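fyi for ur records
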Amino acid sequence: MTDTRRRVKVYTLNEDRQWDDRGTGHVSSGYVERLKGTSLLVRAESDGSLLLESKINPNTAYQKQQDTLIVWSEAENYDLALSFQEKAGCDEIWEKICQVQGKDPSVDITQDVVDESEEERFDDMSSPGLELPPCELNRLEDLAELVGSSLPSPLRREKLALAVENEGYIRKLLELFRVCEDLENREGLHHLYEIMKGIFLLNRTALFEVMFSDECIMDVIGCLEFDPALPQPRRHREFLTKTARFKEVIPISDPELRQKIHQTYRVQYIQDMVLPTPSVFEENMLSTLHSFIFFNKVEIVGMLQDDEKFLTDLFAQLTDEATDDDKRHELVNFLKEFCAFSQTLQPQNRDAFFKTLSNMGILPALEVILGMDDVQVRGAATDIFSYLVEYNPSMVREFVMQESQQNDDDILLINLIIEHMICDTDPELGGAVQLMGLLRTLVDPENMLATANKTEKTEFLSFFYKHCMHVLSAPLLANTTEEKPSKDDFQTSQLLALILELLTFCVEHHTYHIKNYIINKDILRRVLVLTASRHAFLALCALRFMRRIIGLKDEFYNRYIMRNFLFEPVIKAFLNNGSRYNLMNSAIIEMFEYVRVEDVKSLTAHIIENYWKALEDVDYVQTFKGLKLRYEQQRERQDNPKLDSMRSILRNHRFRRDARTLEDEEEMWFNADEDDLEDGEAVVPPSDKMKSEEDLMEPISKFMERKKLKDTEEKEVLGKSSLSGRQNPSFKLSFSGSTKTSLSSPPSSASLNPGSPGSPGSPGSGARSSPSTTTVTTKGGLVGLVDYPDDDDEEEEEEEDGESKEDPLPPSKKSKLSS
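which gave:
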């Protein structure tokens, strides 16, 4: 198994018509009992596992390409390829395949693809070969028609390919091309264009090897310059010979490698620029051309990667201070193209590729390059850096942390990246956007590793906030020293928006690191200066930053906001925006709505106590009045803790749906046995039994009076029900045998004001008069509703359940009412 002749790579063709590397191993052939036939077996060289087990089917078409490739299809959309290290191994396996199928090993394809109708098959079987017309000027039209008519039929296409290959027809056609070009025979040149395009669509490797040879490729490109659809021929050969220059920045000693690079560049040019865009029906006809380029690139990267002297010279010259700028420019462009080629590699090969570059010192080299003044060189270095960050961000993070122990902050690689982002001269900041994306990847905790011995997140973020964050925030701090941005031009605003976007990302993902930085450096105050910018996108970025902070509901942040009155610039921006219904208006209202809905108590109190006068006239949304209501409810609870505890008791029992173990609070209320209660005695907590009934109910009475006044003023806005028409009623708590929790009053106060908001007939009470509502009752029946303004959600739940509630209390614990 150690024979290198049998060493192969196994490839499969994916849905995107790209070859996926399945692994490297050694191939053999032998009889497999399970498959009932001679099969190809590939075992992995790493662990001996089976990579491929494929029976050699007598009817499968196997193709031999480029002397070291065998390609075949095992199903309609499942193509396989074996890429051999040596030609001798490929020949051995090919002979075995041909032996099983009874074919001559000299052929490059073992079967004809047959999928035509029976009639076509019969016609083609009756004429075993396809006869080509003589390769003469006056027969070019006939040949073009023959090629065009053969392409739709796979069998005829195969016969045409064999005929062109066996008769050496391509070289004869190229001789005719030179004659036609000398004679300026435009009609003949147009026919040759159609013929050569058709030969490409035959999709045959043996023909490509002839067409892409050094002596033929330029004439092939010449044939494709004379498109009949164009008034003037293209000038592809002129570009390739005069404009495109092959720069050998490091001498390549291997002639085979040099030839392979030339060939790949020209074939890629043919695919991208010369050949017309294939139609949907022609796309698969060029799959062999895609494969030809793919395997060439893999081979080039492999040969360069194995040449240690070449890579050593490359990095030595890159980092050598004596290297002149032009030379370094060429070296960087070569390295960029080298990395771009690596994107065609499979993941395991790409790992080895970047590991090799890392060992050679690519990151220190990039640091030198990024310190240069040449914008083009820095741009190429940025592209190389992006390949490294996307491939392995941990490798980059480890390098910059080690580097910080030896160098000053100013020359750290990551700070160079930040400086280039800040100093981007492009009006659209294209480079800055790319660099910001790379920084975001580097500081993203999601792709950081954590092991038993060390946590990359903790180490790197501590490093970043100590050595780099001040560089990133410097433009922001420099531009926000006054009440308005000192520079408010478009480019500066774009840059600040990018920085804010990264800081917002940090707020969401970095917890205490960014919290300490924001609070210690007073970053939020500086950011909110940008709400005064004339560029709406920048003001919105500032608002988004504050909104992310508020969204964390962190009291450290909240105290910082309140202590420094940081809602002031937001409210100022809201008032300056006036009545305009735009994104600024919506963003600010949403921020306050979030505070209201999430009931952030500290911020609610701060906003109402300091800014209510500025906001009380805003009535086109109910957000601010809702905030005021939240605030008053909070104050009510603070001023009357007894009322708050009583409400919670009522809620706890009113909405209990199923029997469960009584909690401590219920035990306190219902620990007296039913027989121990005197008729008409209310059940109260033991600590309150000594207090008079008037003392206990006074807070409720005051609350009801205030509630009545408030409802009269804000009836349309808040839609709240209240009691009216009663002063200082004497209430007793009772829990009847029904599911209602009731408040009782003496018979003398049983009269109901028919026009009051609490009456059943009034508009304000219609939506709330469900059977399960807390009520004020006498012996005579229903008197009115008691509505608690902070119970909105519970009332909705109450309405949905209706009369279906079960009695939450055991019979022995129900208290009775007596007058």
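The two ends are 103 Å apart (CA to CA). thats all i got for now
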